[in-house]
Specification:
A nine-stranded mixed beta sheet has the order 3-4-5-2-1-6-7-8-9, sandwiched between helices. Helices cover 35% and strands 17% of the residues. It is α/β, with parallel strands linked by helices and 348 residues long. The protein has twelve helices and 14 strands.
Length: 348
């Protein structure tokens, strides 16, 4: 069985990789724990935050358990430990992560290393070259930006696992395009209620004035913005699914969207139509879900008054059925797992 070492910076991505590599493909995933990773120079998650000590503790500290001040679940709740690794309860998705300190990583046979942020594409190459020279390095890509595009051009990337809209790449790169998996046991399709409720789940409610304007224009609707100053963080995906199913519409305004969005695809699988700016997902993977008036309403193509009229006369139940059918026609996790296995068999 292959041992795969992978970084951890996003709970949804971490769980999607677990569903793919452990549940579907039968490998074992290990992620970093312990501040020695940062001290040794092989952990860059906090770099965008000027290596804030709280961020380092949030992701790496073993004891005492670090409780995030932002209200999100703690990341390093130890439930068991042995010589080879720690077992950590991942509270948001409800599973056990296998975690290794820097020394445990050195002592372990590692077949493959996955780096899921551009900084780690570089850092983990150094880690591999110095300590695990026979391991293969996979660069996971969930966002498209200048940094990773430059690394794709300069030869840094040999193996690319990309959950973005397919685009042209050098034939010298071993690549596979796929969707990050959403747990369909949790995000199961359900009937749209008749509660006239519009909910947002985008962290921080970017460009909140747009949301507040629609709240003003639709006073007979219930508006809730989770993960913002208007409503608390949702702690688990089970709770997230339940809150989605309570809504008639999902408001998903996210300027500069990354292209793949767990909220976007979870909403679709549950069967909730979207109120969304199509420009946010132009030429990005999430754009495949959006058909104006069928699966979603493009709030950028009309005036707010026209959108309000359209919301009132639309049938969210039928649109919910449309988007649930559409996403299942687009996404086949089993087929994609077979393609990823072929990709792994050809790692460079």
């Amino acid at each position: 069985m292959k041992n795969i070492f992978v970084d951890f910076h996003h709970a949804g991505l971490g769980y999607a990789l677990k569903l793919l590599f452990e549940d579907r493909l039968g490998y074992s995933l290990y992620r970093p724990i312990g501040t020695s990773w940062f001290e040794k120079g092989f952990w860059d998650i906090a770099r965008p935050y000027n290596n804030n000590p709280d961020t380092i503790k949030q992701f790496l500290q073993i004891k005492p358990e670090h409780i995030p001040v932002d209200g999100t679940p703690p990341l390093n709740t130890i439930v068991a430990s042995n010589l080879t690794h720690y077992e950590v309860e991942e509270k948001a998705h409800g599973y056990i992560q296998k975690c290794v300190t820097f020394q445990q990583f050195l002592d372990m046979d590692i077949d493959t290393i996955i780096a899921s942020i551009p900084d780690h594409w570089i850092t983990y190459k150094k880690l591999r070259d110095k300590y695990k020279p026979y391991a293969k390095l996979i660069c996971q890509m969930g966002n498209i930006g200048w940094h990773n595009l430059e690394l794709l051009k300069d030869g840094t990337v040999k193996n690319l696992l990309a959950s973005v809209a397919p685009f042209k790449l050098s034939d010298n790169i071993n690549k596979v395009f796929y969707h990050q998996e959403v747990d369909l046991n949790v995000f199961s399709q359900s009937a749209v209620p008749k509660d006239k409720k519009i909910s947002s789940f985008v962290i921080g409610l970017p460009d909140e004035q747009v949301f507040l304007n629609y709240q003003k224009f639709l006073p007979d609707f219930i508006f809730t913005a989770y993960a913002s100053k208007y409503a608390p963080f949702i702690q688990t995906i089970k709770e997230l699914s339940e809150k989605m199913k309570e809504a008639d519409w999902i408001f998903n305004h996210k300027p500069g969207a990354d292209g793949f969005g767990h909220i976007l695809y979870s909403s679709a699988f549950v069967g909730r139509p979207l109120l969304i700016d199509f420009n946010d997902y132009h030429d990005k993977l999430g754009g495949e879900l959006l058909i104006d008036g069928v699966t979603a309403i493009d709030i950028s193509s009309r005036t707010p008054a026209q959108n309000v009229e359209l919301i009132r006369k639309s049938n969210p139940k039928q649109m919910g059925l449309n988007i649930a059918k559409h996403v299942r026609e687009l996404v086949d996790y089993g087929k994609e797992a077979t393609e990823v296995r072929h990709f792994i068999d050809n790692l460079k």
